[in-house]
Amino acid sequence: MRAPEARHGTPAPSIAALADDLHGYETLLQALFAKGGELSTSAIRAQVAGNLSPIAGHQVLGAISHAQLLTSNALGHIAEAHRMLETLGRKLGIDVHAFGDVLKPPASARRAMPCEMDG
């Protein structure tokens, strides 16, 4: 993927950094969401292994679920940021390929991933 360009075709490092950071932040949120799913699974397995009633620990499960919901909302907001940056970039005459939410993230953002994710 080529670097975003300013209006006159000059590469804009700050714009490229913005795209990299946007995708890097999105990747962190995805990893956080995946870890939350693992935590939910561990909590249920611990409840079952302890032969506890579903009532025991339900507040903990509720708190984990609430955190997952907030993380999901954050992912939605980042998707909206993609769209806003893409729209703004078009208005400013900037190459917006790096901001689109349907394209693969730039290589630098993929290198920033804290853990390997499938896909």
Low-confidence parts, pLDDT < 50 over ≥5 residues?
A: 110-119
Order of helices and strands: HHH
Largest sheet: number of strands, sense, barrel closure: none
The oligomeric status of these chains comes to single chain
Beta-strand content bin: under 5%
Round the Cα radius of gyration to an integer and report it.
19 Å
Structural class: mainly alpha
Summarize the structure.
With 119 residues, this protein is mainly alpha-helical. 65% of the residues lie in helices and 0% in strands.
3D architecture notes:
The chain contains three helices and no strands. The model is unreliable at 110-119 (pLDDT under 50). With 119 residues, the protein is an all-alpha fold. It has helices at residues 13-49, 58-92, 107-111. The longest helix is centred in the N-terminal third of the chain and has 37 residues, at 13-49.
Short descriptors:
single chain, 119 residues, mainly alpha, 65% helix, elongated, disordered C terminus
Indicate the topology:
Blueprint: H1 13-49, H2 58-92, H3 107-111
Helix pairs in contact: 1-2
